[in-house]
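Pasting as-is:
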Amino acid sequence: MRGEHHATTTSGSGPGPWITNAFISANDGKMIALSEGPGQGTMVAIELPVTQSAVPQMESDADE
């Protein structure tokens, strides 16, 4: 979404939301957006899965 000034002078929401959604979908993730209402801002969370091989092994794990 755009701010009030840009919303009245520029049409559309730009490529950002489409690119973000395509990236999240391609990686089996999900996006959650929450807002308390107009003028209150928006919180957006993006969740992407991670494989065990992508997580560095902790030194304490190596001792077990």
